[in-house]
Design brief:
The protein is α+β, with helices and mostly antiparallel strands. It contains 14 helices and ten strands. The strands form three sheets. The chain has a four-stranded mixed sheet. A three-stranded antiparallel sheet has the order 5-6-7. Helix 2 packs parallel to helix 4 and helix 5 runs antiparallel to helix 6. The longest helix is centred in the first third of the chain and has 32 residues. It is elongated, with a radius of gyration of 26 Å.
């Protein structure tokens, strides 16, 4: 490998995210679009709703046409949710935030990124684009419905999709963290306070309150209760959202998400008050970058370490598995630098706040990073060292 050739980094397995059993449907600009098995529940629910809706229309019903409309409507509604999530994902990429995946599941879709936005205004734009796309789709389907009055089934399907996207947009601007509305609230609070962790805690508390309300409303609907006790201005919306079991499940899911977000925010606040210097472990002497792998292997085997710095100042890192991945007949002609993982993804300065270091560590190929001071290796950071500090 000559100096003119770019260094080839060993491939890293794609993290599974929150849905390890989901399967990849396709990729959009390199982003895996995945479907979790639970999505079948949503698809079945939407399809059944559409089928019964069209089957109940006045006049003779064609079962095959009704089934085709239900299938088409389910596909278009799924595509609408996917468009909503793609808005989040592509806007994240535009702001240099890597996206792990988009996953469709029982309660809709979720976009997972490798890190959060660094600025409140970026967070606001990334989050806000999703509900905006849903509003645009609602308007588009509404126009189709208005323009196809003479085709009742087409107009009916377009009308249902217009309402569905409008509901999706409204639901996602309600300030219930971790929904889009809750994240919008967090970004506004972050912009006001300058403290992303405190803002997350406040937004999560609002999210818990919203989720608890959904659970209560869902319980009333599920048990056959009504809302005659409520004031008139509340009775209609309460009866409208009291979808029983589905509302109850959404409320439970959101409450769990808000609670987890609150706990993570508290932990990140603790980590932010600690620097890498206070946590790091010892690191072995760096391997010279121009050593061949045969010579480096002798040293690595004599002084075992989880991770080795490469170069002084550090230009990268190395683990034993990277050497093993190279055919042994190439060890004499391959240098350590040829296979080292670049320092910009596997090293952090010694005074880095621990929450930022943990973020870097989570995205590092081996979940470990070297700690540097003026470019020289002074320590090693691993998940076990971080865990030991906060237990």
């Amino acid at each position: 490998m000559t100096d003119a050739e770019p260094r080839q980094q060993p491939a890293r397995a794609q993290p599974a995210g929150s849905f390890p059993n989901a399967w990849t449907l396709c990729r959009v600009q390199g982003i895996p679009v995945r479907i979790d098995w639970s999505w079948l529940l949503m698809a079945g629910y939407v399809g059944f709703f559409l089928y019964t809706t069209f089957a109940g229309r006045p006049g003779p019903a064609d079962p095959l046409l009704t089934l085709a409309l239900a299938v088409a409507g389910t596909a278009l509604f799924t595509a609408s949710i996917l468009a909503h999530e793609l808005g989040h994902a592509l806007t994240s990429l535009d702001r240099n935030i890597p996206v792990l995946s988009i996953t469709m599941f029982a309660l809709g879709g979720v976009t997972e990124s490798t890190r959060e936005a660094d600025r409140a205004r970026d967070e606001f734009v990334i989050v806000g684009i999703g509900p905006f796309i849903s509003l645009v789709l609602a308007a588009a389907f509404g126009l189709v419905a208005a323009g196809t009055i003479g085709l009742p089934y087409v107009a009916g399907l377009a009308g249902v999709l217009a309402v569905a996207n409008l509901i999706l947009a409204i639901f996602n601007i309600v300030p219930g963290y971790p929904l889009d509305g809750g994240r919008l609230l967090r970004s506004v609070l972050w912009g006001i306070t300058g403290d992303p962790h405190k803002s997350t805690r406040w937004a999560a508390r609002v999210g818990q309150a919203f989720a608890a309300t959904l659970v209560l409303v869902g319980l009333v609907g599920f048990t056959g209760g009504d809302f005659r006790w409520a004031p008139g201005f509340l009775r209609v919306p309460l009866e409208w959202i009291s979808g029983g079991l589905w509302t109850l499940l959404i409320g439970i899911f959101l409450f769990q998400g808000a609670t987890s977000s609150y706990k993570r925010a508290r932990l990140r606040e603790q980590l932010n008050r600690t620097s890498v210097r206070d946590v790091m472990g010892s690191v072995p002497p760096p391997l010279p970058a121009q050593w061949n792998l045969a010579r480096a292997l002798d040293v690595v085997q004599e002084r075992p370490s989880l991770l080795w710095p490469v170069g002084d100042p550090v230009v990268g890192t190395l683990v034993l598995g990277q050497i093993d991945a190279v055919p042994s007949d190439l060890w004499d002609t391959t240098t350590v630098e040829d296979i080292a993982l670049a320092a910009d993804v596997t090293a952090v300065p010694v005074d880095t706040p621990l929450d930022k270091a943990v973020e870097r560590m989570a995205n590092a190929p081996h979940n470990m990073i070297v700690v540097t001071d003026a470019g020289r290796a002074v320590g090693l950071l691993t998940p076990s060292l971080v865990s030991a500090t906060h237990h």
